[in-house]
Amino acid sequence: MPLPSHVPVLIAGGGPVGLTLAALLAEYGIASLTVEADDDYCTGSRAICISRRSQEILGWAGADQPLTATGLPWTGGRSYYRDREVLRFEMPHDPLQRYAPMVNIQQYSIEEYAHQAMQRHPERAALQWSARVAGLRADADGVTVEVDAGGQRQTVRADWLIACDGGRSTVRDAMGLKLEGMQYEGRYVIVDIEQASTRPVERLAWFDPPSNPGSTLLMHRQPGNVWRVDYQIRDDEDADEAVKPENVLPRVQSHLDMIGETAPWKPLWISIYNAKCLTLDQYRHGRVLFAGDAGHLVPIFGVRGLNSGLDDAGNLAWKLAWVLKGQAPASLLDSYSTERVHATRQNLAYGAKSTEFMAPPDFGFRLMREAALRLALADDTVRSLINPRQSAPISYDTSPLNLADGAPQAGPGAAPGQPAPDAWLQDGDAPRYLSACFGKGFVALAVSPTAALAADLDTLAASTQGAPHPLRIVRVGAGGWDDAHGQLQQRYGAADGLVYLLRPDGYVLGRWNTPDAARLRAALAPYYPSITVPAHKEGQA
Ligand SMILES: O=C(O)CCc1cccc(O)c1
Question: Which is nearest to 504 in space by CA: 58, 110, 57, 163?
Fold first, then answer.
């Protein structure tokens, strides 16, 4: 198939991050072409745990419904040392929440749902299978990309190239860039098996279990009676031998016997893994941007891999849209790199801690783990050391986009740079989730505004109506939505007159107490060219 000679955005890599980005861009009215080297969705279930934040992001793309319908929600887990339970944990959740804290589903399903979301915009989101980037030349205005597709080399000129082509990124290689960091030596065999079971969905971990003495073993349930089993192999084991079915099956069987799962089972997919903490130090290189594994490799423990890649897509989509629609200068994309490199460094710090527990890299870590596990048998206070530190959205504390905090007394939970907490509100009888307002334009959340403030906000919103993604006002109290469950009060310290400006990706840009119109205009002018800020007069404060 002939590829277009020019596209606004070329996405290299049609995995879950690339396809989600394409679907988000299409929602924002931006056309993209995604090229994927394989001829179908991935094989093997690969990433399996989708965080609440990732579910929200997939929701902006319109890909959350099949995920919620098929995925297996879970809220916590249990860990065992030898044959005794040493930890039972719950992730923060309440029955009013829009999404479960975590949903288990095979990566290929995420790819399929994101692709389906793309297909709702056939004019804006094209996917070419069996097409790989073979070379590129970037300049100040765009990137000329050589693509091998259907046995032919074709040239595509892209205004922007987004590398979502995974850990072995050809874009990264072509640009001579290297991931920096470290790798752990401890290796895990990853096996998917099919077995019917009535066991609840939760994270299960065994340290030194009688079924596999000396090893650590994880189990996660996935849809379709599929179980992910990860187990650590000994340092002296040969990797090629370790993944042979004749070596894998007895270890899995021994574990199933131990936990009393007696139904017939069969292996579906076998792989091997060692934890890596690697990143580029910048995700923007002129007209080329990196997202997901192409830019960073994060340990699986704590499930930050795919989830951080989807966060990249959520951060990048609105910024690219704003730049491409002429609503913001290209320098806005520098903040993508600053924010997401910061997030990766946090994720790597958490991931490293989890890995040091799951695959202790030396005698010292092994000894510490042994001590923690033994103590945890008797002492509740030690149990937090065993907690897997599950993925959570990272705050952008030092983002250049954050505005000075005008309402610190409202508490730290929704300060500028924080992921905006969700809240279940009521619009008359209709329930409304605040998070459902994200993924479009900026949102001004106003708590019981005075009549003058409400009028200022309405004027401001009206002045953005011609923009591709206008400002939306969410008024709570005083004739607006109702904080019926007290969640806004609890999470936003919602005193009368507070105004929060929330970014399209659901991060807090700024907050103030009864701000005047000039302050709100100044805050939003960088994102809405129709909002003008009067020139600063000499001598004015
Ligand atoms: O529960 C954990 O800490 C890791 C779960 C997981 C995530 C992705 C792949 C995999 O094999 C296991």
Answer: 57
Tell me the mean pLDDT in the region 430-458: 97
Alpha-carbon distance values, 308 to 32, 47, 53, 263, 286 (Å): 22, 12, 10, 36, 22
Place of tokens 């945890």: 376
DSSP states along 291-353: -GGGTEE--TTTT-HHHHHHHHHHHHHHHHHHHHTTSS-TTHHHHHHHHHHHHHHHHHHHHHH
Helix (H) or strand (E) holding 404, with range, is none
Give the percent of the chain with pLDDT over 90.
93
* Cβ atoms of residues 441 and 464 within 8 Å: yes
Cα end-to-end span (Å), the chain = 61
* Res. 540: pLDDT tops 70: no
CA of 372 to the centre of ligand 1 (A): 21
Distance 302 CA to ligand 1 centre (A): 7
230 lines ligand 1 (CB under 6 A): yes
Q: Is the CB of 310 under 6 A from ligand 1?
A: no
d(CA 503, CA 517): 18
For residue 172 and ligand 1, the question of a CB distance below 6 A is answered with no
- Concatenated DSSP letters of 442-493: -EEEEES--HHHHHHHHHHHHHTTTSSS--EEEEESTTSBB-TTSHHHHHH-
pLDDT tens-digit readout, 110-142: 999 999 999 999 999 999 999 999 999 999 999
Q: How many CB atoms lie within 10 A of CB 250?
A: 11
CA–centroid distance, 122 to ligand 1, in Å, is 34
Asked if the model's pLDDT at residue 252 lies above 70, the reply is: yes
What pTM did the predictor assign?
0.97
pLDDT in tens, 13-43: 999 999 999 999 999 999 999 999 999 999 9
Q: What is the dihedral of CA 378, 382, 384, 388, to 10 degrees?
A: -80
- Nearest partner of 200 among 305, 88, 123, judged by Cα: 88
